[in-house]
């Protein structure tokens, strides 16, 4: 099995499969090659399954297109794509002009970012008022591997793609990041804070994971 080997000052061997299906093995500086190869062989089934999944997602990204008659997601619902003079959302559907998808896509992303900033800022402020967990600010980013993050200065950052999933899953991410303004870790104290606000957070987290897999298959990763 082909893979890229990266040695560093780490203590364990780890395997990463990127979004295009490429395999990277990270290992300690002094780890024997035989040990690394044995570890890779033991994980072969997982690697092949993950590589296949990532390759399928990459193909979905290449094939992803939008046009009148198709739909686009927003807060867990599918809205029809309608012809329009500019890229917009009117509450009932997405309006898109007749342009090449390569031209439309960045405009569509900017629309999602604008909607995300408005919705996520308001919902964050609502939960901040309920909990007393006060962030120093909110921004919308384009992170591919996480829904949200909290900086050391308690500034929250959300991926614009969070606006694609249902409200209850959005709220889980918001409460999760707000709890980080108090506990910058994932200790039992942190999860207790999340549970105080959302007792059903484990189910919301499970649903969010399922949504992520669905969006990846649709070409949104």
Structural class: alpha/beta
How far apart the termini lie comes to: 26 Å
Q: State the strand order across the main sheet.
A: 4-5-7-6
Strand segment count: 10
Summarize the structure in words:
The chain is α/β, with parallel strands linked by helices. The protein is 46% helix and 20% strand. The chain is built from six helices and ten strands. A four-stranded mixed beta sheet has the order 4-5-7-6, covered by helices on one side. Strand 2 (14-17) and strand 3 form a beta hairpin. The protein is flat and about 60 Å long.
What's the short story on this structure?
The chain is of the alpha/beta class and 221 residues long.
Features:
221 residues; 46% helix; 10 strands; 4-stranded mixed β-sheet; alpha/beta; 3-stranded mixed β-sheet
Give the topology, please.
Layout: E1 4-8, E2 14-17, E3 23-28, H1 33-42, H2 44-63, E4 71-74, E5 77-83, E6 88-89, E7 94-96, H3 101-131, E8 137-141, E9 148-150, E10 155-159, H4 167-179, H5 188-197, H6 201-217
Parallel strand pairs: 1-3, 5-7, 8-10
Antiparallel strand pairs: 2-3, 4-5, 6-7, 9-10
Helix pairs in contact: 3-4, 4-5, 4-6
């Amino acid at each position: 099995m082909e893979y890229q080997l990266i040695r560093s000052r780490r203590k364990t061997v780890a395997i990463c499969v990127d979004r295009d299906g490429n395999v990277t093995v990270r290992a300690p500086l002094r780890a024997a090659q035989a040990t690394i190869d044995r570890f890779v062989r033991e994980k072969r089934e997982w690697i092949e399954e993950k590589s296949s999944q990532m390759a399928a997602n990459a193909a979905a990204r290449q094939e992803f297109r939008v046009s009148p008659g198709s739909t686009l997601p927003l807060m867990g619902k599918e809205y029809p794509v309608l012809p329009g003079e500019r890229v917009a959302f009117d509450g009932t559907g997405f309006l898109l002009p007749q342009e090449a998808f390569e031209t439309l896509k960045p405009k569509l992303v900017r629309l999602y970012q604008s909607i995300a900033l408005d919705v996520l800022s308001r919902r964050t402020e609502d939960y901040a008022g309920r909990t007393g967990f006060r962030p120093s600010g909110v921004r919308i980013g384009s992170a591919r591997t996480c829904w949200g993050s909290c900086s050391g200065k308690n500034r929250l950052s959300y991926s614009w793609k969070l606006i694609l999933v249902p409200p209850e899953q959005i709220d889980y991410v918001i409460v999760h990041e707000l709890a980080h303004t108090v506990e910058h870790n994932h200790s039992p104290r942190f999860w207790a804070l999340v549970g105080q606000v959302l007792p059903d957070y484990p189910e919301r987290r499970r649903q969010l994971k399922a949504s992520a897999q669905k969006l990846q298959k649709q070409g949104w990763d």
